[in-house]
């Protein structure tokens, strides 16, 4: 008898940011996102409703995670960005790269997520 271990992908992993996403707090956020990516989710949802600000280092981290997931056939979704966060991402010219949806539970959110992430 032989046993073969196969990696199993998780459908959705959610991470909640509750503070700024900047250079001062990058290490623990990177560790949390790396752990989430290692779970091999089909979709990684980062809830940014309570994220009060972001700098270039935070944007670079999100873009890096986005690229990692894209290469694995998965997607990153930023949920509930504040108007300020959306404005910063627009100014940084990444608003069209990073997928953003309104608050959790919205019918628009679910419909948009499925089409963006390639769900049937």
Automatic annotation (TrEMBL):
Gene3D superfamilies: STAS domain
Stored InterPro entries: MlaB-like_STAS, STAS_dom, STAS_dom_sf
Domain STAS intervals: 12-111
Organism this protein belongs to: Phytohabitans kaempferiae
Domain of life of the source: Bacteria
Transmembrane feature ranges: none
Name of the molecule in the record: STAS domain-containing protein
């Amino acid at each position: 008898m032989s046993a073969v271990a196969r990696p199993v992908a998780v459908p959705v992993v959610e991470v909640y940011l509750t503070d700024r996403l900047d250079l001062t707090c990058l290490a623990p956020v990177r560790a949390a996102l790396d752990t989430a990516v290692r779970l091999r989710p089909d979709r990684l949802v980062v809830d940014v409703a309570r994220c009060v600000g972001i700098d270039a280092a935070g944007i670079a981290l999100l873009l890096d995670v986005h690229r990692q997931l894209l290469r694995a056939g998965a997607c990153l979704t930023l949920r509930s960005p504040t108007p300020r966060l959306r404005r910063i991402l627009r100014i940084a010219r990444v608003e069209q790269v990073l997928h953003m949806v309104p608050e959790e539970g919205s019918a628009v959110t679910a419909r948009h997520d499925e089409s963006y992430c390639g769900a049937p």
